[in-house]
Amino acid sequence: MAFQKPPGTQDILPAAAGKWQYVEEKARDLCRRFNYRELRTPIFEATELFQRGVGETTDIVEKEMYTFTDRGNRSITLRPEGTAGTMRAYVENKLYGEPDIAKLYYIGPMFRYERQQAGRYRQFHQFGIEALGSDSPALDAEVIALAYTFYQEVGIKGVRVEINSVGTPAIRAAFRDELLGFLRPKRELLCKDCQSRMDRNPLRVLDCKVDQHHFEGAPSILDSLDDACREHFEQVQRSLEGMSIPFSINPRLVRGLDYYTHTAFEFKAEGIGAIDTIGGGGRYNGLVEDIGGPNQPGVGLAIGLERTVMLMQEQEEELAKRQRLDVYMVALGEQAEQHASGVLYALRQAGLSAERDYQSRKMKAQLKSADRLQASFTAILGEDELAKGEIVLKTMATGEQQTVPLTELAAVVQQLREQTLEGEV
Ligand code: HAM
């Protein structure tokens, strides 16, 4: 039997890879503009890092981690998210000792053993950012603004930003008791998930999609905030308004990870089956300390790239343009075929994308390849041209043809290419 990929994983085939590259380039460019710098951490870490960092009672740690014992008898886990590893690297490499705050980003695969559904994978990719060393509400707003701009620029329509404040751990503990007081009499009416969440993480009950009608009159965490938390949350909102980033407040928004304090937020969009969250994050002022580092506040977010790619629209034309080949070289006859590689190599060295036939096919079949690859130019090398040190160059858009000295081919193509690019503007 032929092998198949493991459930919940995907092959990103060449036809789709262009979209991924586009998204990743956008992410990197945005990070440059917002001054976030890349951090690459290992794909696996000590299991305990995630237990401490993500939280023992989260779904991720309880049910979803890919954990194994390595040959040195260590418990290792494939990273289910990027924040914990970033914190570990920040502490281990003492990045907190630098005069400026650390503004970091990462792009890469994450692993969660989740139930499969549209938009939910077991290996998926995140673009994440983390800003460490300041508790300024302006930084919470900056993180939200970066994600908002990302979705706008990759062309996702109808993105909604929901924000909430989940206060401090002490505020949450008090709110938890108040909420349980409200939920207990309704326990039997609630779904199985909610019942188990009541025991493990009651705040997440309010997030339930099916039981919302039972939550009318539920206490709101926003009413439990102290003055400092309220002030922080107000200022985040003022900063967002200052950047004209639209948002709504959702007092029931609770994230699936334990480390959040103050601001929590999610980005939502329609179009992927039952799933609507395309990115999320928040502030995590206690996390660095929880994993054994100094007391440094942080804020960050992660964007799911599978969900981003699924929702991208209107990029087809731009992507097709980027994938176009500059030159397809048609070689006719044995002599020409022998010379083809040298000519092709010169084009590639000059920075052009170029391809040739490797199957000794007839001219017609070679020209068809040029079409399929959307070559801007076809260069035809026959025995006669070769004898004269020349080549026929055809501009595909206009059908114009000219004979060019072989030594000047790259320069002529560059020149014509610039002219057509100018023409397109
Ligand atoms: P998260 O909400 O668990 O947060 O994941 C962030 C995003 O990753 C989700 O909104 C979704 O787009 C994507 N995602 C999560 N799980 C899957 C999956 N199984 N398949 C496909 N996409 C998925 C975090 O991971 C936090 N570390 C975010 C953060 C960074 N908070 C502060 N800093």
Description:
The chain is of the alpha+beta class. It is built from 16 helices and 16 strands. An 8-stranded mixed β-sheet has the order 1-5-6-11-10-9-7-8, sandwiched between helices. Strands 13-12-14-15-16 form a 5-stranded mixed β-sheet, with helices on both faces. Strands 2-4-3 form a 3-stranded antiparallel β-sheet. The longest helix is centred in the first third of the chain and has 21 residues. The chain is elongated, with a radius of gyration of 28 Å. The model has no long low-confidence stretch (mean pLDDT 94). Bound molecules: histidyl-adenosine monophosphate. Histidyl-adenosine monophosphate binds next to strand 6, strand 10, strand 11 and helix 11. Histidyl-adenosine monophosphate (HAM) binds next to strand 6, strand 10, strand 11 and helix 11.
Largest beta-sheet characterization: 8 strands, mixed
The parts where pLDDT drops under 50 for at least 5 residues are none
The pLDDT mean sits at 94
CATH class of the largest domain: Alpha Beta
Terminal residue distance:
53 Å
Estimate nothing, just give the exact number of structural domains: 2
Envelope shape:
elongated
Which fold name fills CATH's third level, the topology of the largest domain? BirA Bifunctional Protein, domain 2
Fraction in beta strands: 15-25%
Helix content: 40-55%
Q: Structural class, from secondary structure content? A: alpha+beta
Can you count the helices?
Answer: 16
CATH architecture of the largest domain, please? Answer: 2-Layer Sandwich
Number of strands: 16
Q: What is the name of the CATH superfamily of the largest domain?
A: Bira Bifunctional Protein, Domain 2
